[in-house]
Structures
1.
Amino acid sequence: MTLSQRIAVVTGGGRGIGAATARTLAANGASVVVSARSVDEIEAVAEELREAGSQAIAIPCDVTSPEQILALRDRCTEAFGRPADILINNAGIADSRPLKAVTVDYWDHLFAVNVRSVMLCTQAFLPAMTEAGWGRIVNVASIAGKMGAAYIGAYSATKHAVIGFTRSIACEVATQGVTVNAVCPGYVDTDMTDKSVKRITAKTGITVEQAMQHLESTSPQHRLMTAEEVAFAVLGLCHELARGINGQSVIIDGGAVQA
Ligand code: NAP
């Protein structure tokens, strides 16, 4: 088992990409802490992992709260004897609106959930990794962190920020056995994309099928990515032999963005 003896924390682990990542890391031997705000969802994922023979616990945390992030770290330490060897900063929200509708509160909230949380979780979990001389941090960014598109100025700015943060912290810890990377999915078949489809249909009047076709057409493979494909990329970055991959942003979109 690639990740046996490793403890992994997955934020936003209750559904979508986070839940798939929790399953993949657990299937490869990691003990997994599944975290998000919805207690029923994280409990269900953790229970499923335990039933499959893995060690897993659910710890609720709102990643916009610095106090709750420190409490998450402390509860991980209580449960496993150390905070974590692997941190997957996956929790995030998406929204779209034209620039004229972007308010300060909207901007700050997107940044608090998508960016400030990545900084705070990294601050909380990184010291134990550098002390141990081994660690893996994977930040779930987006192709919106690699390119712009109409109406996603705020979301796109958060994901560009995550990639910039990833690159800089990767440099900061490069000699200490820790790698920091990002994954950049295109549209993934999750609740988040279902909500995007609803927003598009409400704003443009096109049908659900047309909206879905539009999102699928953004990939040269004419399909949505799956959460499991993203989880596989995350797993690869956590592997022992991935120690030379640092500060990178791995795109999973079927080939639309090649940078
Ligand atoms: P999702 O199905 O909506 O799941 C999002 C997860 O984040 C949930 O577990 C949610 O749980 C958690 N979350 C949201 N706000 C949180 C908060 N304040 N504190 C703690 N947890 C919070 O979304 P997804 O598609 O799996 O997306 C996961 C990540 O991938 C996000 O960072 C997203 O930006 C990125 N991404 C998604 C796509 C896509 O097409 N779906 C593409 C590129 C990148 P609670 O609401 O219970 O807290």
Note: The domain at 7-188+226-252 is CATH 3.40.50.720 (Rossmann fold).
2.
Amino acid sequence: MTEPQKPVELLSAQRIAARLHILAEEINQFYQNKEVLLVSILDGAIIFTADLLRLLKVPTRLDCLRISSYGNSTTPESAPRITGSLKSDLNGKHVLLVDDILDTGNTMKQATEEVTALHPDTVRTCVFLDKPDNRTNGFQADWVGFSIPNEFVVGYGLDYAGRYRELPYLAKLLVSEPD
Ligand code: IMP
Ligand code: MG
């Protein structure tokens, strides 16, 4: 297995914050006079959700789904597994699914199906990052922070083998081949 090296910054904390303000404003406009139930897809969306939530001016509630598709690698090892479920009654709710990144689209497709089966009023999706080149199912999010090329990224909640989530910026990892 190759070992990751130094993270190289792709998006600064300032750029992320500026973009989130614009995104939140659009979401505030869209949900005027409605209460929103944010459903955060753990673990990756935790930082994005926390920042977005604090910029929303509409009334909100928060719930979490835990879905995992990556083990210790940079490519999906299996179909996404749902390992934690919602505590809320979704009947009559306006659900906003929040994830860190839309890659193949499998996670969001599965999460959307899961949530829709619980009969909310509406379901919308918001992702911090979109890697459109890697999509296998045509899934499109309603709100996207940044579109990025098809390379593995870490930081701002995203991990490699459980690490680097704490970086306040988005980075790519330079991977060195063993000698
Ligand atoms: P998808 O199911 O292929 O769309 O992948 C979505 C999930 O894979 C995200 O929620 C992330 O947890 C993870 N993922 C996809 N690409 C990356 C990446 O570049 N870095 C870290 N995690 C990623
Ligand atoms: Mg994830």
Note: The pocket of magnesium ion (ligand 2) is lined by residues 41, 44, 99-100, 107 (CB under 6 Å).
